[in-house]
Every structure is written in C-alpha cells, then in structure tokens.
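Note to self: keep these together.
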Amino acid sequence: PAAVVDRFGRALAQGDLDTVKALLDPQVLVLESGGTEQTRDEYLAHHAPADAAFLRDAKIHAGRRRTQVEGDLAWVASESELHAQAKGKPLTLQSTETMVLRREAGVWRIVHIHWSSQRGP
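Structure:
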C-alpha cells in the first residue's frame, strides 16, 4: 500500500493524471481544504489539475509515516513539509495525508484520501 501511495504522489506531481486515475478507485472519496469530491471522475475534473500544478515545482520533505494492513484494507498516514510558490511568494506548509486502500484481485487502489495542511514556520 505505501508503494501505491508513493506512486500516486509522484504521478500527481508530474501531472500524469492517467496514472493517478489508474490508482484511484472509481468511488474514491477525497477530502481536501474543507471540500469533498465524491468520485474519481469528480476529483480528476476539479482539483486534480490544480493539485498537479501546485506540486509540480514544490519541494517535499517526507516526515513520519505509519502503515496498517488488515486483510484487503490498509491505511497509510504521512506527514511532510512542502516548500512551494503561491502568487509569486514562497510558501511552507506542514501537511498530513491519510489514504485508505482496498485490495481487489491482488491490486491495491485508493478508496479515500484526506489532506490537511497549515502554514509552516
């Protein structure tokens, strides 16, 4: 599961939305910045392009991570620090991410994402 989460993050930062789509369950629930997207298609049509653009030039420093697997369900919780540009000014964010994955026919797909961040020092 952690490898799928890493692959998803790399694909999103590279703007590879085909890979992002392949790693998401069609009924994924995405919670981000107080908003909700109820399906993979909704996320890809709305926030995914903006998330990809934001992450494209960001520097991400991975922090702590925990993974738990119980049968065909798993969760991966990660902390990171992001350094990016917003409106031409440097921005540092402390970010947390939780992803829940389900395995079907031996393939892990992301069924839930929750991102939360706050301005860093």
